[in-house]
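Sample pair:
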Amino acid sequence: MSHTNRPSLTGERFRSRRSVVMTHRGVVATSQPLAAQAGLRMLLAGGSAADAVVAAAAALNVVEPMSTGIGGDAFALIYDAQSRTVHALNGSGRAPAALSRETFTARGLTGIPLTGMLPVTVPGAVDAWVELLAAYGRLPLSQVLAPAIDYAENGFPVSEIIARGWKLAEPKLAAHPDTARTYLPQGRAPRAGELFRQPGLARSLRLIAEGGRDAFYRGAIAAAIAATSARDGGALTLEDLAAHRSTWETPISVTYRGYTVYECPPNGQGITALIALNILEGFDMAALPPASPEALHLQIEALRLAFADAAAYVADPAHVHVPTDRLLSAAHASARRAQIDPQRAMPSVHVGALPGGHDTVYVTAVDADGNAVSFINSLYMGFGSGVVAGDTGICLQNRGAGFVLDPNHPNCVAPGKRPYHTIIPCMVTRGDRLWASFGVMGGFMQPQGHVQMLVNMIDFGMNPQEALDAPRFELIDPYLSQDAVALEHDPAIAAALTARGHHVVDRQGMFGFGGGQIIVVDDAGVRHAGSDPRKDGCAVAY
């Protein structure tokens, strides 16, 4: 088939139960309707795509607190319509200056804990918000944060999916007194439809709205975070918080069927998706039926190889050399592609172990001028470290769990180092014009989702909503050499992949296969937005 930059509207390849949301002006897509509306309010007030995504992210901190917040990190890709260029913002935090491998080994630990203060790195989200708005925003921070403050002060009705996730986290929340007081005020998680208020978080958001980044990194909020760390045996200090800054970086990219696919560079795992796309570029995917065992087999194998590369090399390039150019070279793709047998799964790919996580939020917006932001904000695992800092309402991330303790591994924990990061936004251009801004949530599912979305649209002609709704596969433990793959497809597909040597398993947990949001811009400038029903996905436009 021919590869065009116009989304299919026929539904020939996969029939979705949702229509694409279309507009020629502004649109916002994210995982919760109240947050999507917060972003749309910014566009209606004359704000930019940057204003919209920060407003939505702040609102998600309130209405989907297990997934995201100002205690976490953020990454963004920005399309500047005037210059027709793509820029990357790395808003991930660093390990405390007093945190090292010896911190853990001295306590008799052979791995990094998933809860408590030890895996807490500097939260980078607030600085990322401020940096993004300073460069591309049009509205004051106080206006951008107003919807989130309103939801926190006056409450919001908890939706069904979020209530279920909250309920599952009750044991983790109950283990820390400040966390239990904040998120289990009645001794339990709120039920679907109950009004939930967060006065502590509202106060923190107001402080940030009035005082900017310094209110978080140098003021009362920083003092509360540092005090909690000192009390609970952590390493994070006031000095660590005050020293934090986001970094503007050059995005990495590959060309897939004439489309330029952009990801943020390491320390993020976006390179995984690009390696896999480079491998798939050598196969005629469009000649295969969508969701066929043949098509799925090639994508699974390409991603297994890509994850092996990422596990071996991805780390903080400010501390170790990451051979990004070599990993994205045509020669490397050709060598990896040659290892794929179209009829049989490879033997297990043995790589180092890293923990997974599945709670993240993604938001994308395109404004009336054609500027776009692909934005992702996360606490890593559900409710992050499980630690709330005093009465701030801020749940702290556990991104330090992304490090390893192997002293010979490039991703070994070290002072001031950024960990391997799972959250990755994606952006695609056709020539120098924006074609798509999208993301898929769910820890290590994210690069897998990026690849499947692009294959669905570019190779199989699906429109954005169809591409989101189509059944997915997920490599469950891509770093644990188990080679297990879960499927949303029917049993016949599972049987066919098993016959090829794949280890097909059932997916456990609420948010398996990720959620996702996407905006595609066609040749006429019409925005086609899709949102994922695996979460409370919502796209709104004017």
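The mean pLDDT is 93.
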